[in-house]
Design brief:
It is built from six helices and three strands; from the N terminus they run βααββαααα. The protein is of the alpha+beta class.
Length: 90
C-alpha cells in the first residue's frame, strides 16, 4: 500500500491514477500525517469472449449441448431476420 500526501495527489493525479490502474495497488492519501482517504482499484473489465471463456467448465454437459444447438439455429440468417424487431417501432 502506497502512501501519498494530498498535495502530491493534487500535483500528480494523472500519474497516480495510471499507476493505480496498472499496478492495482491501493493508495492511502494523508493530510497533516493523518489518513483521510484511500484509493482502491476498480473492478477489472473483460470482453464478452473473456467473460464467457470458462462457461463450458461450469455448464452441465446437457445444458451445454442445448445451448450450442440453440446458437447454431440462431445464426441462420432467416431465423435472425424473423426474430429481430425494431425497438423504436411503435
Amino acid at each position: 500500500m502506497r502512501r501519498i500526501t494530498a498535495t502530491e495527489l493534487a500535483r500528480k493525479l494523472s500519474q497516480v491514477l495510471d499507476r493505480l490502474a496498472t499496478d492495482g495497488e491501493e493508495v492511502v492519501i494523508e493530510r497533516n500525517h493523518r489518513q483521510v482517504a484511500r484509493l482502491v482499484p476498480g473492478p477489472g473489465w473483460q470482453t464478452a469472449l473473456e467473460a464467457m471463456a470458462d462457461l463450458y467448465r461450469t455448464l452441465p454437459e446437457r445444458a451445454a449441448r442445448g445451448w450450442h444447438q440453440g446458437t447454431r439455429g440462431a445464426l441462420d440468417a432467416e431465423t435472425l431476420a424473423e426474430g429481430t424487431r425494431d425497438p423504436w417501432a411503435s
